[in-house]
Amino acid sequence: MITENLQSINRRIENACKKVGRDPLEVKILLATKTVPADRILLALEAGYQLIGENKVQELSQKYKALQASQPTHHFIGHLQTNKIKDLLKYDIDCIQSIDRFELAYKLHQRLQAQSKTMRILIQVNTSGEESKFGVAPGHTIALIEQISTLHTLQIKGLMTIGLFSTDEKKIRSCFRLLKKIQTEVRGLHIPRVEMAELSMGMSGDLEVAIEEGATIIRIGTAVFGKRNYPDAFYWNESAPVL
Ligand SMILES: *Cc1c(COP(=O)(O)O)cnc(C)c1O
Known about the structure:
The protein is an alpha/beta fold. Helix content is about 40%, strand content about 15%. Pyridoxal-5'-phosphate binds next to strand 8 and helix 9.
């Protein structure tokens, strides 16, 4: 099932790319593996998909060892609390996609510095304006990037967003367009050490729209692994009831 699902995702990527004249090789698939047990993630890794993302440090730690033999590339895509930074850095993380405030970046920097390490990061932007979504407000993004760019352990590689949950494609598209617009603005500023190569946007339901608007990383969960048992609010909103 998982391999068929991945094939169907690839077809969707190809069709979306064709529509706007993009090369499908520009679009990386990140497997969003929250709630998915390690043995099922392994099926996707064995099929040749290496890029995976967890939302919670605890879940990462539970599955990390079981996946190591398949050498996945780990991104962290969930809301990160400052008191979890230390635990997160015990693992080999290629990129943290969810940096959305200076306090978090600064504490991460201090820990990295103490360990003589660096970290690739994306800046998460709240393009939908929904209170339940994390991310820096669009209007504050450039100031945050300028501030974080002074922290030499952090390498800003681009932007991440979660689009509006809506059946109105126009509204979803405007979220992704906004992220692209911020990327273009930041590029124009030529801030030292800041790269804006990556746009991480698009999930199972809206990957086509995201690719049409310039996504370089799409984060796919349910379309590969099936429906989750937990509501997404469990991952996206700390005030949500703990199940
Ligand atoms: C769960 C999750 C995804 C994937 O969502 P699906 O709709 O299952 O594809 C993408 N990004 C983030 C940040 C997530 O938490």
